[in-house]
Structure of 3'(2'),5'-bisphosphate nucleotidase CysQ:
Amino acid sequence: MPGPEDDLSLLVQAARIAGPIALRYWKRNPKVWQKGDESPVTEADHAVNEALHHHLRAARPDYGWLSEETPDDPARLAARDVFILDPIDGTRAFIEGEDSFSHALAVAKGGVVTAGVVYLPALDRLFAATLDGPATLNGQPIQASTQTTIEGATLLTPAVNLKPEFWPGGVPDVKRSFRTSVAYRLALVGQGRFDGMLSFRQGWEWDIAAGSLIAARAGATVTDRHGEPLRFNRPTPRSDGLIAAAPGLHAALRARLA
């Protein structure tokens, strides 16, 4: 039976296949459609999804499949192992010709992510981790921030999340930034370029599975907005918000939210 390192190697291969496909459409006016939830999808999303499905399922035909661009099949719920992926995370950035879109690929076993890759093909940055190994960027170990207080902390989050109604304990005085790709935000926390990231919206598993493992293995604390552990391959594949931050900062943010 394949172990986490075997799965990680497969995910890296798949990400390297996906990158050139996405770049063929990037900055070339790809066809765009609107989904039922008003989010955009492009012909590149579908092309990458098809290539990933072919490559990954050929290698692991007994694994379940959960992808943003594939109709959900409840058969995945009976699978011990499941691929969870977003062919292009940050589609709006992709459409605008920005370089911060990513491929987010993960394997979850028994509800826990055991291998994950976040690859930014336009920047050739490949973040990776296994459940029992280090988090890396292009093969080199990365380390999350050790920030312990809110004061002076850098946080990746939309501006709306800093409205007073969300913070009974007082709005945190942080330096706010943003990236469209949720997976990339999590990877940046793992890299230590930002002290944390925060979302109050329900998050799709395909957006957060790979990045959450990378951030956690780099030393960040990663939970839902209530401080509860994340679980994956659920019937409704969403989390109630997301907080990933240096452990001390995570505790300080949770205290302000309580």
